[in-house]
Amino acid sequence: MSLTVDEVKKIAFLARLSIQEENIEQYSQDLSSIFGLVEQMNAENVDDIEPMAHPQDAMQRLRDDVVTEVDQREKLLSNAPLTEDGLFLVPKVLD
Amino acid sequence: MKNRSLTELSAGLKSGEFSSVELTQYFLQRISNYDTDLNAFITVTEEQALSAAKVADEKIAAGSATDLTGIPIAYKDLFCTEGVRTSCASKMLDNFIAPYTATAVEKLTQAGMPMLGKTNMDEFAMGSSNENSFYGAAKNPWDLERVPGGSSGGSAVAVAAKLAPVSLGTDTGGSIRQPASLTGITGIKPTYGRVSRFGMIAYASSLDQGGVFASSAEDCALVLQTMSGFDAKDSTSVERGVPDFSASLNDSLQELKIGLPKEFFDEGLDSNVADVVNEAIEAYKKLGAEIVEISLPNTHLAIPSYYVIAPAEASSNLSRFDGVRYGYRCDEPKDLTDMYMRSRGEGFGSEVKRRIMTGTYALSAGYYDAYYLKAQKIRRLISEDFKQAFENVDVIMGPVAPETAFKIGEKSDDPISMYLSDIYTLSLNLAGLTGMSVPAGFSRENKMPVGLQIIGNYFDEAKILNVAHQYQQVTDWHKKMPSAYAGEK
Amino acid sequence: MEWETVIGLEIHAQLSTKSKLFSGSSTEYGQQPNTQANVVDLAMPGVLPVLNTEAVRMATLFGLAIDAPIGRGNVFARKNYFYPDLPQGYQISQFDKPIVELGHMDILLENGETKRIGVTRAHLEQDAGKSLHKDYAGMTGIDLNRSGTPLLEIVSEPDMSSAKEAVAYMKKIHALVQYLGINDGNLQEGSFRCDANVSVRPKGQKELGTRAELKNINSFRFVERAINIEVERQIDIIEDGGKVVQETRLYDPDKNETRSMRSKEEANDYRYFPDPDLLPIEITDEFIETVRATMPELPQAKYQRFMAEYALTDYDAGVLTTSRAVADYFEEVAKSTNEAKLSANWVIGELSSHLNADDLEISQSPVSAEMLSSLVSRIADKTISGKIAKEVFQALWAGEGKTADEIIESKGLKQITDSGAIEGMIDEIVASNPAQVEQYRSGKEKVFGFFVGQVMKASQGKANPAQVNELLKDKLKE
Fold first, then answer.
1. Residue B296 has pLDDT above 60, yes or no
2. B258 CB near a chain C CB, below 8 Å?
3. pTM for the full predicted model
4. Could you tell me which residues are beta bridge partners of residue C260?
5. Looking at residue B115, what DSSP letter applies?
6. Is C101 helix (H, G, I), strand (E, B) or coil?
7. What is the DSSP letter of B130?
């Protein structure tokens, strides 16, 4: 298993991670060896096994439809890098 | 005061021998004396601690104290604590003041435990050495050149060097048990669903579980008791009663059946570690236990399966760190995409980026079945292994880690060799079981501590705490302290 | 060449729950920005979702109404993508195990035939926040009040072959979700939205052409226009020897054109996987039966019943059952007055035209069903004539009184049925118009209308017209 530099760039973009050009080769080596390790799974035939998404075999609990929250805007916006008029500001979104 | 159990500290508080303010000041002083070397804390919350201690003293005076009232505690810096920076040891959250408090912390705060501060960790809990911290590596108090393990390294160091009598950590693939083993203290990872995950910043949601570091199983039992239980804010926390963990500590181990998985004693295990573990098993024989060899045949698949599932969940869990509502935003973004790319690229460290990319790739179109789905199927096989084993034995024992604490820098350039050090701890998280690390002695070769792993069936925390406690009644490994920190500066 | 259009719709209906899908924040519309977004809605680190039971009930109700199997162990999945109005960096949605499986909806075609449209699936998911493009120094503002509001995404099969069919289907779904009480039907506020997948192919060709997805079209009229203009565009491209590109397009109602939304196109790999914070939703037989028991009467059944029970025409029953609110209004009036036909006339006529003129929903009508009932009753018992009734209605609409009686009283509009009084007026008029009397008696019967008009005028319209006719005829014979 080996991931090319182009594949690494594609994944980095999908994950929205800027990677310094000089580090891409290292990431490609690291990811290749991680997937080399992961591919040990291929020796196993698991066709008939039910996938396990959760440690518990439980079902979802449900909540009553009740409004429990009060406005905490001031507190919740206080960590934001940039706000105005109670809005989070980001570079222009184009549609 | 540092050599007393939580029960003894509580007695001292209630009898008026010392106040919570004095006790809290004592630990704050130790932090101030020793933490420059150890780097166990990211944030020390002196003011909050002392004012909480004052309130605790009032409660004690009024006779409304619990067994934990007035005893200070430290939290891994991924438990949200309202009004206090909660950084996950990441540049991404270096400026993040949590607007709410995690349920586990809230319960202990309600019980009257003052918070000493927030402890160091591997960034976003990704790592086994505590070297992946924006705030620098935490050091092993038994040898400052060695790692304390991770990811909850700071919480383990704080207890091992007695900068705090007790602390909380989280365990996703061994992050409580491995540092407990490497620093010679007791740590418990409860069954998945026993402790609420609400307010614990997620690494891998189906694997993460909060737990306790302390000097003994008895101390762990007290704190775990209070932080456990169903939480309506966490759909994966389990609606079932919490037994009295302390009540069964003194049950006899006569006829206890201990399973030793042969896969945990293979050629990858350091012989010095094996010797210590075997000696501990001998002690259990003397306590009346029966030893049975068992097999967990899919153990070798735990690492490949884990390193798909955990990064896949993490890649999605960490998408919320985008520089919009909180956390790091890059300087002068050119446009929206640039803001995302650079805020995340600059805000996350290299191991976090590595795991996000691993998970992104494993979930991407065309690879999902080969990686993610397959890993989930293997996860079932691993879980079935344990199910079968527990039909014949009460607990499973083995080493926690294949070797003792390694040198800082020794594995930091080689992610794979770092991943391999989780071999004995990961499978338990995949299955969702409970497990502990209990100090069992020291490596003859390098004099570093070695932990014994005790694995229990689902919701059998009371059983493994009992099994650990009985061992601690006939041994004193858990009372050993690194000499540099055994006195008072 | 002859072309065939293929259309499938994805409808997003906000469920009318009080709180959000996974948090206890209010879903109320139109509040100050970010005042209805709590730690969960803002995706603060460490928060967890807890599912709203009412959303599950509503989705189940919808599934039962379109005759679809309900997914017994349906699962939430994460759809991963980055967008500022999506705080988690993923949308919690359902992927391979939706709560509502294959169902159907019948629509009426223009030629009177019924066509069955397949409903592939309907699933629960979170709504996103809103990006506000007002100029904040060249930046965009993000309001997350809507973030996490429950949506039911209703996906049709590509079974529609014209814009008209698409609109008919959309209207049927629109009526249904309101009948079920699970959506407020408000297209303007965006609580009912529609994306259309449109493609064309040469008539007779089996495989589908390349489709374009038209996003967020917020009125029935625009759906029709957007599809038609997109179909034209695609046919033009192909006839010019080009190829249609699979992409997302935005309809611009001002220019009546669709244009490419390139920003939505980049890196379209959503990496769906089961949400590890949520467990499978268990739907038991018992739960389904409980929900079924609350199933309200559906449009088709109501339409049949209105014809049978109230002897309404096909047309009246059809109009009155297009919306549950109108049907309920009508029924309240009909029941309390026992005058079904008259009630239907008033709801379809005077009430509807007033609502249209003022652009109001029936729920906002200043004349309540109770008020209209009082009016209809007074017409039925001949206290007022139909003509006077319009005046009374206008007064009720303007808020001049609470009941018809109050208006009739205060304006003195009560019909005169005392024959003595009417005779008196007739005598006077006959006496003062001898020339017209002469004309009438000499056989010019048209003049009769003049006398009726004079009497009505003298009575200020309040004389009972039937009585006036009868008495006039007698008097003029003399």
1. yes
2. no
3. 0.90
4. C249
5. E
6. coil
7. S
C82: chain B residues, CB-CB within 8 Å: 319, 322, 340
Q: Is the pLDDT of residue B153 over 80?
A: yes
Sorted by sequence, the CB contacts under 8 Å of residue C349 that are 6+ apart come out as: none
Distance CA(C59)–CA(C286), nearest Å, equals: 16
Compute the Cα dihedral for A63, A69, A73, A78 and give only its sign.
Answer: negative
Walk me through the domains of chain B, giving residue ranges and CATH numbers.
Answer: 6-258+390-485 (3.90.1300.10), 319-374 (no CATH)
Sheet of strand B167-170: strand arrangement? B41-44, B115-119, B73-76, B167-170, B210-214, B186-189, B434-442, B449-456, B395-399, B257-261, B290-294
Q: Is the CB of residue B352 less than 8 Å from the CB of residue A2? A: no
Half-sphere exposure of B141 (CA within 13 A, CB side): 31
Percent of chain B with pLDDT over 70: 100
CA distance B476 to B474: 7
Find residues 421-450 of chain B whose CB sits inside 8 Å of chain A: 430-432
Say whether residue C75 is in contact with chain B using an 8 A CB cutoff.
Answer: no
* Neighboring chain A residues of C142 at a CB cutoff of 8 Å: 87-90
ipTM: 0.97
> Within an 8 Å CB–CB cutoff, is residue A89 touching chain C?
yes
Give me B125's structure tokens: 């809990």
Question: What was the pLDDT predicted at C429?
Answer: 86
Q: Decide: helix, strand or coil at residue B325.
A: coil
Name the residue of chain A whose CA is nearest to B428's CA: A55
CA-closest candidate to residue C60, choices C97, C22, C94, C101: C101
Query: Does C279 sit within 8 Å of B100, measured CB to CB?
Result: no
The overall average pLDDT reported for chain B is 97
- At C134 the pLDDT is 77
Among C34, C42, C48, the strongest candidate for a mutation testing the B interface, having the largest count of B CBs within 10 A, is C48
- Domains detected in chain C: 3-289 (no CATH), 299-411 (no CATH), 419-477 (1.10.10.410)
- The reply to whether residue C139 touches residue A82, judged by beta carbons under 8 angstroms, is yes
Candidates A61, A67, A70, partner chain C, best to mutate (most C CBs within 10 A): A67
Of B346, B377, B432, the CB nearest to A49: B377
Residues 6+ apart with CB under 8 A from A44: B298, B301, B378, B381
CA-to-CA separations, B401 to A31, B176, B385, B433, in angstroms, rounded: 24, 12, 20, 17
Flag whether residue C399 sits within 8 Å of chain B, measured between CB atoms. Answer: no
- Please say if the pLDDT value at position B264 is more than 70: yes
Nearest by CB to C46, which of B199, B204, B324? Answer: B199
- How far is it, in rounded angstroms, from Cα C225 to Cα C214? 11
CA separation for the pair C401, B328 (Å, rounded): 62
Kindly determine whether residue C18 and residue A67, on different chains, have CB atoms separated by under 8 Å.
Answer: yes
Which among C33, C44, C139 has the least Cβ separation from residue A86?
A: C33
Interchain CB distance below 8 Å, A39 and B339:
no
Whether the CB of C282 is below 8 Å from some CB of chain B: the reply is no
Candidates A14, A53, A90; nearest CB to C267: A14
Q: How many CB atoms lie within 10 A of CB C16?
A: 20
List, run by run, the mean pLDDT of 10-residue segments along chain C (478 residues).
94 98 96 97 98 98 97 95 97 96 93 94 98 86 97 98 96 94 93 96 92 89 94 95 91 90 67 96 96 93 94 92 92 95 94 91 92 92 84 91 86 75 84 85 84 84 81 80
Q: Nearest chain C Cα to B99, which residue?
A: C39
The count of residues in chain B is 489
Q: Do B372 and C273 touch (CB under 8 A)?
A: yes
Q: Which residues of A touch C16 (CB under 8 A)?
A: none
Task: Find out whether C80 and C134 touch, Cβ atoms under 8 Å.
Answer: no
